[in-house]
Amino acid sequence: MNRIEFLKTLGFGAVAVGAGQSLLTGCMNHDMAEMSAVAPTIQEGAFTTPLPLMKTVAEGASLKAGTQTHAIVPGKPASALGYNDSMMGPTFRVERGVPVTIPFTNSLTEETNIHWHGLVVPANMDGHPDQLVKAGQSFAYSFTLDQPAAMAWYHPHPHMQTGKQVYMGLAGLFIVDSPEERALKLPSGEFELPLVIQDKRLSAAGAPVYNPTMPEIMVGYMGDTIVVNGVNAPFHPVATRTYRLRLLNGSNGRIYNLALSNGDAFHVIGSDGGLLPAPERVSSLLLAPGERVDLLVDFSKAALNSEVFLQSSAFSGVGSQGSQTFKLVKFMVNRSEADPFKMPASFPALTTLSPASTAKTRKFAIGDAMHGAGGHSNKKSMAGMHTINGKTYDAARIDESVALNSTEIWEFDNSMGDEPHPMHLHGTLFQVVGRSGGRDSLMAHEKGWKDTVLVMPKETVRVIVRFQRSGKFVFHCHNLEHEDDGMMLNYEVK
Ligand SMILES: [Cu+2]
Boundaries of each Plastocyanin-like domain copy (predicted)? Predict the structure, then answer.
């Protein structure tokens, strides 16, 4: 049974779903590929807005979630959400091992919280969906980080509201620094550029609009306007030297195939959880929602006054969202400078987790209710199409119990599925052991610590995880529509 037949079985054709109905009804007449054809075509902007750089703050800085006015498109200030009245919140920069306290105030009209995505923090500081901060209330997050230098991020995590709150503007970066990383003398200061890539749908007034239809919940809510660091189509002047680009895919559902418009290769030096053991030279790279990648891009051979775009190149395997090549940000090579950067002779050694040391292998069938998710989920409503082992999220249920300090293999099986699922674990970092089916190999940026791994249709991905924090955490698909639809489970470490 394919998904269309499944939807018919559920009686979707006869159910009024508001704005989604005509789309859905239309889909009924087409095949699966057509059903996925809801990724809007990207409308590229003019690349005349200067790239905003987020304010950098230290430990102790406070955060406030609230409504703000922000111009995604120049000249069109409109209502959005944000931390500290900004579409991208401040970038925290914190030294490994230093105690961190971040006072948080919820100035929204609804509950929210903060999840520190990629930071291994105590369970009661992790922004579990149970730990909500009511409207008007405050909470002080505090933790001490003992993990490699990396670029993490923070965003809300209230169940069924995460997609909307992130999409409307609540997100920010969190960089962990260490002496080991500084010793490498990577490009820093103005030569280190954090970039958050998102896609939005905007109202005529320029405000982000979040109202996914049923088919859009199926594949993820995608926009037609690319937003980098909070604005559409920015440019940034660069010198003829090597830049460190630290990228987050902060989109709800869209995957990007990152590449340079001149076709040049670039080096991947890090991923979600820190540096790779060695640089990897690639000419493109798939980055899924929630994933980060640390790149070195060499502009030293670019002609003066030339333009180089970071773009998303067309890619296959995920339906319409991969069918288009579009530009993300324009780099204008506007000055000639000697490039002092030398690729380090070696990178800090990576502590490799050994599959031989694992206590257990857990298998998770991921997908929608009819594909590879462990059977029927017995739904009474249209919600909960996306499942893990046939289950949707239940706050009161512990789905997996894990022994503290144990090492396990977790296997995400999307072999029967037809949608990509970036799987994310809270409370730990992991290493990718292998991938079978689909792309059938480890990607360049999967050779270091990760917290989110892209499992494409037909793929099974195995990760090795050590559980060093006790308490209750969630793991879930980081396609935020899938997550809010229930593709999330609890696990408890004790
Ligand atoms: Cu998913």
Answer: 70-180, 224-302, 383-493
